[in-house]
Amino acid sequence: MNMKKIGLFALGTLFGLEGIKLLSSKDAKKVYAHCTAGVLRIKDAVIDQVTSLQENCSDIYEEAKSINEERARKAEEAEVSDEEEQTEAGDEEV
After folding, report:
1. Is residue 13 part of a domain?
2. What pLDDT score was predicted for residue 56?
3. How confident is the model at residue 78 (pLDDT cuts 50, 70, 90)?
4. Rounded Cα gap, residues 18 and 44, in angstroms
5. Is 17 a domain residue?
6. Which of 87, 93, 92, 94 has its CA nearest to residue 79?
7. CA 21 to chain centre
8. Secondary structure of 27-40 in HEC code, one letter for each residue
9. Would residue 31 count as lying in a domain?
10. Is residue 5 part of a domain?
């Protein structure tokens, strides 16, 4: 049983060392570089989309604020108009 454990450890160490050599080879580095370049392109595309979305949301927010201000102004004008009508109706009754 002890020899089996030692053998597995030695085999694992050998595979680990070969794996390190494989991962640090020129071909592997080229693959890493291409993958990293792809990720950077995706990042740029995502940032462009996020920027566009933020601009659109900002435009929508400003338009919504404008709509609410206009509604509030009209409601205020209607309220003033109602008060004037009530005042005029009260003056006519006297």
Report:
1. no
2. 95
3. confident
4. 36
5. no
6. 87
7. 39
8. HHHHHHHHHHHHHH
9. yes
10. no
Could you tell me where the DSSP H helices lie in 1-94? 2-23, 26-93
Give the CA-trace dihedral at 29, 30, 31, 32, to 10 degrees: 50
Mean pLDDT rounded to a whole number for the chain = 85
Q: How many domains does the chain have?
A: 1
Token pair listed for 80 = 């003033």
pLDDT confidence bin for 93, thresholds 50/70/90: low
Full domain range(s) for residue 62: 26-93
Contact at 8 Å (CB) between 8 and 2? no
Q: Please tell me the distance from the alpha carbon of residue 74 to that of residue 68, in angstroms, as a whole number.
A: 10
Count CB neighbours of 23 within 10 A: 11
Compute the distance between CA of residue 23 and CA of residue 32 in angstroms, rounded to an integer.
Answer: 9
When computed from its CA atoms, the radius of gyration of the chain, rounded to whole angstroms, is 37
